[in-house]
Amino acid sequence: MTDEVIIRREGAAGFLSLNRPGAIHALTLPMVHAMSTALLEWRDDPAVKAVIIDHAEGRGFCSGGDIAFLRNSALNDGGTSGRKFFHDEYQLNHLIFTYEKPVVAFMDGITMGGGVGISQPARFHVATENTRYAMPETGIGLFPDVGGGWYLSRLPGRIGQFLALTGARLDGAECKWAGLATHYLPHDALAEAKERIAHGHEPGQVLSALAVTPPPAKIEANAAAIAKHFASDRYEDVIASLEADDSEWAAKELATLRTKSPQTCKVALRQLHDSLECADFAANMVMEYRIASRVLTRPDFAEGVRAVIVDKDNAPQWDPATPEGVSDALIDSIFAPLPADEEWKPL
After folding, report:
1. What integer best gives the mean pLDDT of the chain?
2. DSSP H/E element including 66
3. Is residue 34 within 8 Å of 20, Cβ to Cβ?
4. N or C: which end of the chain has fewer CB within 10 A?
5. Does 319 qualify as catalytic in the annotation?
6. In this predicted model, what pLDDT tens digit does every residue of 33-53 receive, in sequence order?
C-alpha cells in the first residue's frame, strides 16, 4: 500500500483522499492500485454506502498522471512500464464508471488528465469556485485519454472537440454549464457535504441541498463560434475555419492550435468520433488503450513532455510537423487492434 492515497472509513462512507501534494496529487501506479483495491473491497461491504474521492492537503484535486514516469518508459524500456500504467489506470477508470454504489468526486481545484479520469466516471462530480478543469494532452503529444473520448464526444455543441484540441481550461461554473459537473458547491460547503454522506444520507440529495447557482459561464459567450469552427472531424477543416474568421477569439484559438501536436489533434478528433460508435465504456477503453500503446512511443510524446515539463522551453519539434504530414495511414495504425493477448480488459 502507499501513503500517497489516504484510505479510510468514516461512518457509511469510504474515503479515497489523494495525498501527493508536491505533485498536485498526480497519479502514480501505486496510487492507482491502492484505489482499485479499496474499491473492490468496499464493493461487497454492506457497511459502505458511498465512496468519496477527494484530495488531502495542498492545492488542486489531481493534476494528471505520472508524466515523468511515462516519458522515462518511452525513452528507456520501449514503453513496457508505461503501457502497464495505462492498462491499470484504465481499469480504475472503468471500475469507478461501473461501480454500483454511488461515488462522489470533489473536483476542488486543478482537475486535469488523470484527475478527469477518476472524477468524470463517478456518479456525482462536484465543481467549486476553485475548479480548473482541462484535458491538455495535445500540448504534450499524448491524447485526451482516461475515458476522455467517451465524455467529450457526448458534450453538446462540439464543446468536447474544442476542449480536446485546445486544452482549454474551464472553471467550475463552466464545468456545470457544459455538463462536466453534476453539482456546483461552494468550497466552504464541502466539509458539510462529506459529513452528511458519511452519516448515511443519500449523496444526490445532500449535494442538491447544498448546491448553489454558479456564476455565469464565460464559455457560453463563445458557444456559437465553437460549434461553427470545430464542427468538422477533419483537423484541416478546423484550422481553415478559424483562419477565415478575423475575430480576436478565432485568432487566439488558432494560435493555440499552432502550438499543439498535429498528430495528437488528429488522433483526438478520430477518438471522439469513434467513441460515439462504442457500445459501452469498456469498448471505449479498449480503443483508448490501443491508442495509448502506440502514441506512448511515437516521437511527439517524449518531445512534448521535454518541451513543456522538462526543459520548459515550450518549443516542441513535432513529428510530423504539420497536419498535412499526419497521414490517414498513420492514424489508422495508431487505432489498429493489438494482438489478442495485449488488448485491454476490465478488472
Report:
1. 97
2. none
3. no
4. N
5. no
6. 999 999 999 999 999 999 999
What's the pLDDT tens digit per position in 2-29?
899 999 999 999 999 999 999 999 999 9
Q: Which residue has the cell 481550461?
A: 169
Is 84 within the bounds of a domain?
Answer: yes
**Residue 120 within a domain:** yes
Q: Which of 4, 54, 66, 137 is catalytic?
A: 137
For residue 44, give Cα distances in angstroms to 17, 50, 102, 192: 20, 12, 13, 26
Which of the following is catalytic: 145, 171, 253, 303?
Answer: 145
Q: Judging by DSSP bridges, how do beta strands 110-112 and 170-171 pair with one another?
A: unpaired
**Of 104, 108, 91, 106, nearest in space to 147 by CA:** 91
If you search the block for the grid coordinates 508505461, which residue do you land on?
82
Q: Mark whether 108 is an active-site residue.
A: no
Task: Output the nine-digit C-alpha cell for 282.
Answer: 469498456
50-55/103-107 β-pairing: parallel
Q: What are phi and psi of 100, to 5 degrees?
A: -80, -30
- Classify residue 88 by its DSSP letter: H
Catalytic residue status for 145: yes
Q: Is 79 helix (H, G, I), strand (E, B) or coil?
A: coil
Task: Render pLDDT for 234-289 as a digit per residue (tens, 0 to 9).
Answer: 999 999 999 999 999 999 999 999 999 999 999 999 999 999 999 999 999 999 99
* Inside any domain, residue 86: yes
The residue annotated as part of the active site, out of 64, 65, 139, 147, is: 65
- Distance of alpha carbon 295 from alpha carbon 291, whole angstroms: 6
114: annotated active-site residue: yes
Distance separating alpha carbons of residues 27 and 33, to the nearest angstrom: 10
Give φ, ψ of 281 to 5 degrees: -65, -35
Tally the domains of the chain: 1
Please give the residue range of the domain that contains residue 252.
Answer: 5-342
Rounded Cα–Cα distance for residues 107 and 115 (Å): 8
Q: What is the CATH number of the domain that holds 137?
A: 3.90.226.10
Out of 82, 114, 147, 148, which one is annotated catalytic?
114
CB neighbours of residue 274 within 10 Å: 18
User: Is 347 inside a domain boundary?
Assistant: no
Residue reference for cell 454492506: 46
